[in-house]
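User: Before I run my own analysis I want an independent prediction to cross-check against. Here's the chain; please return only the structure tokens and, at the end, one sentence I can use as a sanity check.
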Amino acid sequence: MKKKLLSFIFLGSTSLLLSCSDDEAAMSVAPTPVAVESSSSVQTKPLSSPSSSSLQTPKSSAVKTSRDTTFKHVIDTVKSGSSIDYPDIDETEVFCWEQGCEKTVKPRSSSSKATAKSSSSHSAITIDQPENKPPVVNGMTMTDARDNKNYKLMQIGGKLWMAEDLNYSGVTSECYNEQEDKCKTNGRLYTYNSAQKACPTGWRLPTREEAQAALNDESVPWQYSGRCKDGDCNFIGDMGFHWTSGTPASNDKKYDENGGSSGALIIVEKSPEYVKDKEDEDRLFFQVDQKTKRFSIRCVQE
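Assistant: Structure tokens:
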């Protein structure tokens, strides 16, 4: 009887020891990695555990590895909505907790600096062109800034006049009989429409009143530069013709012959030698003429 009792005690103790050994083996399995985040990315570090040689996994127990479902912290950059690229404007940073969230984030509005730049980018830049520069007046000499040609000046009726005929080639014009040397000595010949645009900035054609003052002033040095009509040029050295901005009047010479009010008012100057042997010949006067003819220009300061 005692032998049987001792046998049962021995068997029970052995079973108990084996059961404890199984529990310890199951608990010694490597733990699931834990996510540890840093400022730039997420790194996984295992908890301190015994070396792999000391781990004993029973064949009968199945070990399941936990799936890492931690989202990475993503920093995406969303640029300003403006289509203009401003390299000195800070970009907007969006901090996202989930992947793809940057698509739903509205970027911040442009700064006042960006707005100022945007508006200024549409501003027109004005660059002075030669034709827009006023001439330089030094005493009684004018330098045309468009081509650097110099002209003598004089006072007539309280206005500053050119005392020489204009020689500016920037508008439709021609030299007498297409001779360049005639342009140098007598200036160029212009149609009426070209004459409206030929004077430099701040200068213009004389009015009727200003032209009358010039006709009354015997000191005016007229140039008898002739004219061109339909390709035919004549009267150089004998007569001069200058455009004005005045309105034709019915008592002007050749008013009816040259279109009346639809014509243009010119000054006609005949040289003293040309009229010397002619009786009852006017030497200086107004005349109405056709706008397509080519005549000289004297500009007056505004």
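Sanity check: Residues 70-81+89-106 form one domain.
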